[in-house]
Write a structure and sequence with these properties.
The termini are far apart. Helix 2 packs across helix 7 and helix 5 crosses helix 7. The protein is about 45% helix and about 5% strand. By secondary structure, it is mainly alpha-helical. It contains eight helices and three strands.
Amino acid sequence: MIRLPLCVTLLLCAFLSSAFAAEPAHDANLVARGRYLSVVGGCNDCHTDGFAPSGGKTPEAEWLTGSQLGFAGAWGTTYPSNLRHRIGAMDLATWKAYARTLTTRPPMPYWALNTMSETDLEALWSFVHSLGPAGTPAPAALPPGKEANGPVVRFPAPPPESASKH
């Protein structure tokens, strides 16, 4: 009689420990590569408040948490998203599919993300996941003609199509 409850207890403990196990450690080389890509790819320039004005001296604990600074132009106003929330909520396969098909409004250079190598996408995902969640969501994008409540960087209207042809 005592064996059955002991077996059930051991199985239950094994199940619960695997269900609540911490996320596996990320490959240190991939994390380092992802950190490098986030810097040279300019991710922090928009997605980390104060990164560019501080000459890149913002503490890493604050990286990629999004921004309340809007980018306004003919498309409306966009805000750099909190990548630690967005990418952090994705598994690797979902992230890769997202990165390959993402199109956004300016100034996000989504085409650069679309063309990253598989290894670079894995590295960026590993780095963001290694940082863990932090910060708050960025404001929602605004349509053209709706003014932002906070600070914005204003982009001039693009040149007329005829001016860009030689």
